[in-house]
Design brief:
Two copies of one chain form a homodimer.
Chain A: H1 15-20, E1 38-45, E2 54-57, E3 61-63, H2 68-72, E4 75-77, E5 80-84, E6 90-93, H3 95-108, H4 116-129, E7 141-150, E8 162-172, E9 182-187, H5 211-219, E10 224-228, E11 236-239, E12 243-248, E13 251-254, H6 265-276, E14 280-283, H7 288-292, E15 296-301, E16 305-314, E17 317-320, H8 328-340, E18 351-353
Parallel strand pairs in A: 9-10, 9-16, 13-14
Antiparallel strand pairs in A: 1-2, 1-8, 4-7, 5-6, 5-7, 6-18, 7-8, 10-11, 12-13, 12-15, 15-16, 16-17
Keywords (chains A, B): Amino-acid biosynthesis, Aminotransferase, Branched-chain amino acid biosynthesis, Pyridoxal phosphate, Transferase
Family (chains A, B): Belongs to the class-IV pyridoxal-phosphate-dependent aminotransferase family.
InterPro entries (chains A, B): Aminotrans_IV (IPR001544), Aminotrans_IV_CS (IPR018300), Aminotransferase-like (IPR036038), B_amino_transII (IPR005786), BCAT-like_C (IPR043132), BCAT-like_N (IPR043131), BCAT_family (IPR033939)
Chain lengths: 356, 356
């Protein structure tokens, strides 16, 4: 349930903080929608370029019943986070990467995207407009959700004649409630993506199809689902909303971005950090057999950042992996979150300060 | 372009007809949106049952930016047609089949559908409210588009807490402009669906991913695209929006509905009609090699009904098939459209008279 936004339900806030912060119980934040004050909207009409876009009050949008997104799933989304640092700055984590990924996705779904510059500028404007919804340091982040959707009316299957680029935000806590590691189920029935499809871009069409698998797994007390490749059913691909890594010896392996898994920005960043501290990174097909023999397994994604996997269940086998303070996953998680929250200096050029 | 709805641009109509018919240039109808007067809307909220639904003026709907359909593609659609017969009745073609298909799709996408009875009743109400938009006999049909979409706000990937069941309509002419047969391109790069995915239900997520392939083919003067199976790339599956049949000798073959192609209602009806006149029907894997050696090829779907394929191009091979008056496709097309338009008596129980 989303935290309540009633003033009376937030005894923790002082009158000074009320100016700086929205009235949210920051310690109770989950990964659920807490509507903020403003959103960004820009439009593209066939044959024109994207409108400049504007910050408007957050609220329902008006859309044709015949819109491409409602009928044919012509839509992309992105997800990124804004952080408030101890010294009071507001920063974004690698927004340029999200901007570029939207370009690739728009090409696959035959849409015209906003330019990367417009994308990043729009994200900045949206976060600054919702400044007081960025959680206090250490309490979470402001999750930012850019959408590019076909809002033009189209009866036959084709690209819509109008697109809307929209950004809304929500303060969030942890994606998974479990404080310990994830308990994954390997789904050997449903598949997420196939070669020649859209599994490699952040298309809305990759997500509703995994919900059935996710509900089945959660009803059996699993945290999430690991999908296998559609071609052979032998290699691991992706969790419903994040990438996967396995560790054995000095080698960290993760499935390659060859069109059926999302090229995660956290995935890319964690690979770089692991390499920095002496691990060998292999992007290659990883079989279920290898997964079951790994020493550590962990997942990465914008919403969860990095989460250790405690167990994997495949048919009747259940494997337990190393987690905890001595685990590589714990070390990498700390390295990345320290950069993201400004606890250590960012030598990577990943953080964008938007408060100055 | 949609036909104009300006009164001044329709010199064909007499004042008497103006009462019975909307102001449309019926002879110029294409398969494009011509908005009609009314639509049907019903809502479902988690833990409740579907609201009764009501006929409201056709127009934009209001939706949360965080809705499941906009972010995660949680949506299904259906397509069916209403016909006006020579003796003035208005009929529907097998609406119960669409109602049942929406049930199956809703189960796959974890949505609660309206009951089959509510579905059919809603279709009837919507058509009767738009009575004057049903084209005159022989001029086309009123295309009916039911949607079931996740309109509730949901931030993490999950089933939306609210669904909307909506029906809108549009008078339509032919789906493909070509009066002769289709010129299909076999796409050996993109795939449409995979086993364990959603290719067997009418999910919006199956459609935006094929647009790229369709645009590429149309820019090379092909009419449409034929997809191969994702597992082997050897068998034919489906055109972007319709099913496919091949004829050799006395045997009509069509790919099986095993989860990667849509179980078409026209497909099912045409199979039955072909069987009635002595052909053997085989639902089985059909290889590209067999396609290239067939005598006739044809496609079926609600929008196009049945259309002969004149040529298929696979890599650098281009095969020409039998079409025209002597072709089986022409015979089957006539058999089905005669039933649909009331020219011959319906002994199948397929047509539902909603005007009485």
């Amino acid at each position: 349930m989303a935290p309540s936004a009633h003033p009376s339900s937030s005894p923790l806030l002082t009158s000074k903080e009320e100016e700086k912060y929205a009235d949210v119980k920051w310690d109770e934040l989950e990964f659920a929608l807490v509507p903020t004050d403003y959103m960004y909207v820009a439009k593209y009409k066939q044959g024109e370029s994207f409108s400049e876009g504007e910050i408007v009050p957050y609220g329902d949008i008006s859309i044709s019943p015949c819109a491409g997104i409602l009928n044919y799933g012509q839509g992309l989304f992105e997800g990124l986070k804004a952080y408030r640092t101890e010294d009071g700055r507001i920063t974004l984590f690698r927004p340029d990467e999200n901007a570029l990924r939207m370009q690739t996705g728009a090409d696959r779904l035959c849409m015209t995207p906003p330019s990367p510059d417009q994308f990043v500028e729009a994200v900045k404007q949206t976060v600054l407009a919702n400044n007081k919804w960025v959680p206090p340091p250490g309490k979470g982040a402001l999750y930012i959700r850019p959408l590019l959707i076909g809002t033009g009316a189209i009866l036959g299957v084709a690209s819509a004649p109008e697109y809307t680029f929209l950004i809304y935000t929500s303060p969030v806590g942890n994606y998974h409630k479990a404080s310990s590691g994830l308990n994954l189920k390997v789904d050997d029935k449903h598949r997420r993506a196939h070669s020649g499809g859209t599994g490699g871009v952040k298309s809305c069409t990759n997500y509703s199809p995994v919900v059935k698998s996710l509900i089945e797994a959660k009803s059996s007390v699993f945290s999430d689902v690991l999908f296998l490749d559609a071609a052979t059913g032998k290699n691991i691909e992706e969790i419903s909303t994040c990438n996967i890594f396995i560790l054995k010896g000095n080698i960290v392996s993760t499935p390659p971005t060859s069109g059926t898994i999302l090229p995660g920005i956290t995935r890319k960043s964690i690979s770089e950090l692991a390499r920095d501290i002496g691990y060998q990174i292999q992007e290659r097909n990883v079989s279920v057999d290898e997964l079951l023999e790994a020493e550590e397994v962990f997942c990465t994604g914008t919403a969860m950042v990095l989460k250790a996997v405690e167990t994997v269940t495949f048919h009747d086998k259940k494997i337990k992996y190393k987690t905890g303070e001595e685990a590589l996953s714990t070390k990498l998680h700390l390295m990345l979150t320290n950069i993201q929250t400004g606890v250590v200096e960012d030598h990577k050029g990943w953080m964008v300060d938007i408060s100055s």
